[in-house]
């Protein structure tokens, strides 16, 4: 009787593993491609050329009632010590980021140039690599000599408009310096999904309420 039960238990275990694996794959795909269309996911966006061989790409998007000219000032002033990141400030500040997300456009934060720092923390900054007002902002972080962090990273904000409606697409790309970096970046990408979803909604709400 016991021997007869073993194949059944094995089949159940395999089936459960398959269901869990499928659920994990669907969840991963959702957080990497939240609200993005297949065309947006497949598109070549500004900043992709900076990391030609990315190991992980996340493309997320949102529709905003407003023109790209309405959305751009909120993008331009992003960063720690400036307009913030429009996400969960309290959660970011638990990590010591000292983020205060603005609820209005500040004129002195509108001038940004290639080469300027894009601060995530008072002591941590990415570099602005591309500025196309009304269309795209791309920032990049590179692994340092001691490989900390052990990956290169780009973060792109791309706007496309049709009349008074704008599509904001945000893309993150990671290139690993070693095989084990995947174990580090996968959890980071999951946390990034939570923060990015709030950020996209935060930008949308600010534009539409302005």
Structure characterization notes:
- The chain is α+β, with helices and mostly antiparallel strands and 210 residues long.
- It has a single domain, classed as Alpha-D-Glucose-1,6-Bisphosphate, Chain A, domain 4 (2-Layer Sandwich).
- It is 38% helix and 26% strand.
- Strands 1-6-5-4-3-2 form a 6-stranded antiparallel sheet, with helices on one face.
- A hairpin with a 2-residue loop joins strand 2 and strand 3.
- Helix 3 crosses helix 5.
- The protein starts with a helix and ends with a helix.
Give the structure's gist in a few sentences.
The chain is 38% helix and 26% strand. With 210 residues, the chain is an alpha+beta fold.
Keywords:
single chain, 210 residues, alpha+beta, Alpha-D-Glucose-1,6-Bisphosphate, Chain A, domain 4, six-stranded antiparallel β-sheet, 5 helices, 6 strands
Distance between the termini: 71 Å
Major beta sheet, strand line-up = 1-6-5-4-3-2
Uncertain segments = 5-26
The strand count comes to 6
* Total number of domains: 1
Radius of gyration, CA atoms, in whole angstroms: 20 Å
Strand content: 25-35%
Number of helices: 5
CATH superfamily: START domain
Query: Which word captures the global form?
Result: globular
Topology:
Elements: H1 2-32, H2 38-42, E1 56-65, H3 68-76, H4 89-94, E2 117-121, E3 124-132, E4 136-141, E5 151-162, E6 165-176, H5 181-209
Antiparallel strand pairs: 1-6, 2-3, 3-4, 4-5, 5-6
């Amino acid at each position: 009787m016991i021997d007869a039960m073993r194949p059944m238990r094995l089949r159940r275990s395999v089936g459960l593993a398959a269901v869990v694996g499928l659920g994990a794959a669907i969840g991963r795909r959702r957080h990497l491609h939240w609200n993005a269309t297949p065309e947006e996911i497949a598109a070549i966006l500004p900043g992709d050329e900076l990391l030609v061989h990315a190991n992980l790409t996340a493309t997320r998007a949102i529709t905003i009632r407003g023109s790209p000219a309405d959305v751009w000032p909120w993008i331009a002033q992003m960063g720690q010590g400036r307009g913030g990141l429009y996400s969960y400030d309290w959660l970011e500040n638990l990590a010591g980021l000292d983020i205060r997300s603005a609820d209005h456009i500040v004129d002195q934060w509108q001038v940004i140039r290639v080469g300027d720092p894009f601060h995530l923390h008072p002591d941590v900054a990415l570099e602005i690599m591309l500025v196309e007002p009304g269309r795209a902002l791309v920032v990049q972080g590179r692994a340092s000599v001691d490989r900390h962090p052990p990956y290169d990273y780009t973060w792109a904000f791309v706007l496309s408009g049709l009349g008074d409606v704008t599509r904001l697409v945000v893309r993150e790309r990671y290139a690993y310096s070693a095989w084990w970096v995947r174990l580090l970046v996968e959890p980071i990408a999951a946390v990034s999904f939570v923060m990015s979803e709030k950020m996209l909604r935060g930008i949308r709400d600010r534009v539409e309420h302005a």
